[in-house]
Design a protein that fits this description.
By secondary structure, the protein is mainly alpha-helical. The protein is 52% helix and 9% strand. The protein has a two-stranded antiparallel sheet. The chain is flat, with a radius of gyration of 16 Å.
Length: 65
């Protein structure tokens, strides 16, 4: 969803997890906040929440919602 809505990252940096770890993708905060205000983002977020709730229900009782 991130790449679909934001496109490629603005920059990348070395991953503090180690030399062989993939680079960290960084996005401009203003661009992210602008995307979070769109109808497309809200629809996709609602779909993701519905999928998450269905997966938790399917996993059975005892798991936190």
């Amino acid at each position: 969803m991130i790449i679909e809505l934001l496109g490629p990252p603005d920059t990348t940096e070395c991953n503090p997890g180690g030399r062989n770890a993939p680079r960290v993708k960084l996005f401009d905060r203003i661009r992210v906040e602008g995307t979070e205000g769109t109808d497309l983002f809200h629809r996709r977020f609602a779909q993701a929440e519905a999928r998450r709730a269905a997966q938790l229900r399917a996993a059975g009782p005892g798991l936190p919602l």
